[in-house]
Amino acid sequence: MQCAYLSLNANTELHRYHLYQLPILRDAVDGFLGPLAGVLAGMDAAAENQSDINLLLSAPGDTPFLPQDLVARLYAAKTKAQASIAVAASGGRAHHTVALWDISLRESLRNALINEGVRAVSEFIARHKKVDVDWSLDPYDPFFNVNSPEDLQIAGEILVKRKMIIREMPVG
Length: 172
Known about the structure:
This protein has helices spanning about 35-50, 70-80, 105-115, 120-125, 150-170; strands at about 10, 25, 55-60, 85-90, 95-100, 130-135.
C-alpha cells in the first residue's frame, strides 16, 4: 500500500462510488472548479481528520496503471529537491494531476481558486517549487487515461501485456 488513507473526490452521481467503500470527498468550494478543487478537498480532509498527515497524493480515477513505486519515487525526489510538489511525468509530458503535494499549500490553493480564479493545475503548480519525476513509457505509459471506448480497448491490451510481463518475472 502506497498511502495511509485513500478517498475519492466526486460531486455528482455519488451513489455510483459507494461500492468502492471509500470516503467520498465533495469539493470544498462550489461551482465544479476542476481538479484543483478536488486537491483542496483532499487537503482539507487530511488537515481536519488526520493531523499527522502532511502530504497528499492526487491521481485521476481514469488512470488505472499507476506505478507501484509512485509515492516512493515522488517522495524521494520531492525531499531531495526540497520542493513543495512532486509531479509525475512520462514521455516528456508532466501529468499535473498525478502529484505529491505539501498540505501546507492548502490556504494558498484555496485563495488561488476562490479569489484569483485559478483553474489550471499547471498554473497553480508553477507558483511553487516543484520537481518532475519521469517514468518510462516502456512497456506502456503508466499514466495512460481511459476516456473513450477506444482507450478502454487499449487498456485491455495493456492488461494482457502486464500479465505476460508478470509471468516472465522470476519468483523468489
